[in-house]
Amino acid sequence: MDYLKKSVRDIDVKGKKVLLRCDFNVPQDADGAIADDKRIREALPTIRYLIDQGAAVIICSHLGRPGGERKMKFTLTPVASYLSELLGQHVMMAFDSVGNDAKRVCDAVKPGEVVMLENLRFNPGEEGNDPEFAFRLASLADVYVLDAFGSAHRAHASMVGVAKYIPAVCGLLIEKELGVMGKAMVAPEHPFVAIMGGSKVHDKLGLLNSFIGKCDAILVVGGMAYTFFKANGGEIGESIYDGKSLELVRGLYAEAEKKGTKIYLPVDTVIADKFSNDANYRVVPAGCIPAGFMGMDIGPKTVEEFARLIHEAKTVVWNGPAGVFEMPNFAHGTEGIARAVAESDAVSIIGGGDSAAAIEGLGLQDQVTHVSTGGGAAIQFLEGAELPGIAALLDK
User: Fold this and answer.
1) Active site amino acids
2) What pTM did the predictor assign?
């Protein structure tokens, strides 16, 4: 199974050079300063662990989409400077990833020291999974540690190619991702409740299918609920819906009934006369949206009913907001779901993206079991799909 992988705790790194693949694809402001340091801070436990164990740490990452060319607006130099401040020690910068400067700096690095290689995507061999690029990258170190879960679904050189040449294990961040999410999907405690939001059913079809038969209940919220209502003959006014998925939704109901999973839809909906926070809005029974109005959020009765189901659960997975939560007037449903998940005694997993943003925006991230860093990778992992970066690691 993909989640039974060796971690950095399972090997001896003392005196060794460790190539650590992080996800430092961080947003920067117009002056190049780090605008959000979340991904850098998430890597700190693994970096500090390696330093404490006596390893020389060689960090590699991508930043942006330079398209295989050296474009200095995508340089990792500001990230190296920022990481130096967080670690309280100097992070040396190599001005290429596999060239002469990288070799010079990595040859000289000593145990306890940290090096940052330049943006991997400055070289077309990274995204092309070029064997020569992967070999040259691997030759800089003795061991490879993957801690970039958000990129683990990409078969790039630094994700899979390097693992062909040196031993490859996961870092502490991915160890937690695999442990919590792997157990939830293989041996969850019941009742198991999945909360599914977002706009397009088609984008989450694999995830919905993977939950049927595993979950006791699937709570459908957000834009995708209108596709479910449309498939059931409900009135959805001008609401967003996925016309290509109506038959698929009907098939999901049949499969869920056969496998003992109950699908719950909202009982009331907050509707508006335009897609704007200052629109005229009111609450109507779900599936009864008049012409000229669109669904923007789940209603208060739905929040109450879904909160009850969440509080009864032993395992909860949440992926996708309950409404247009960027607009304050239509954020109440998402906030209600977030608070219910945070207050529950369940093992609670937030599947990245907008759900993670909602939890963190409310300051509730410490009250849930796990907020995934993965986004698309998290969805694929929960679907049961093989992630190339994870598959390349050594098994337990």
Assistant:
1) 39, 200, 353, 376
2) 0.84
